[in-house]
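Morning. Coffee machine broken again, so started the prediction first thing and wrote up yesterday's gels while waiting. Chain of 239 residues, entered below exactly as on the submission form.
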Amino acid sequence: MSDSAGGSLSLTLSRGIELLELVCAADIAPSIGQVAQQLGVHRSAAYRLLRTLEAHYLVRRDEAGKIHPAAGLTNLARGVENSLQTVGLPIMTKIADELGMSCFIAVAQGADCFTLVTVEATTSHALTQHPGTRHHLDRGAPGIALLSGLTPQQRADIEELELSNKARADLEQALRDGHASSFDEVIPGVSSVAVPLMAAGQLPATLAVVYPRQQLDEAHIAETLHRGAQAIMTRLGKA
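Came back before lunch.
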């Protein structure tokens, strides 16, 4: 196994990270047997990986032996784009309550889009985009909005980024409109609107909302997000 720079990767570390990702992404906490099967390793190997992650408080097991994310993850997540999270939270809270939707920031790393932080509306039972959600940049409004905020050269420099015809059309539309929208692309039955959030010194990011499909004023949503993105960038510039 080799990385993009041609150097060797640690297979054990890679599998440990895969285990952690599986546990964090699971809707229902998996058992050690299920994890071993998904990783394609012997149960004893999966158990050693699990015990290592438990020792660092990154996962825990309940009384039934099911594996859950643990408190140690909060220390790791806190430092990720800390300024962006700190500055963005109050602005996202205002947007979430104004629109009655879950508002979130996602960032680009490699060819993937990662949800960094999410705020749910307090005024309604909004859908949630869970932090840590990951998908390819060519899918969904957040991914397309992220791509639209990059320069052509930056997009060309992303390895493993191969855009389908639909993704190219969506990107061209986002470049014209200044925002991206999608339905049923990342979460079944869910719509999203997103705008680029490109702040100096931060990972390429997007400010977005998700909501059940319904007839809403997309332009108003995009305008609200643009105001929020500008406010975040202004505050980051003063930090």
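Strands lie at 59-61, 67-69, 102-109, 112-119, 134-136, 180-183, 190-197, 205-212. Going to sketch it on the whiteboard this afternoon.
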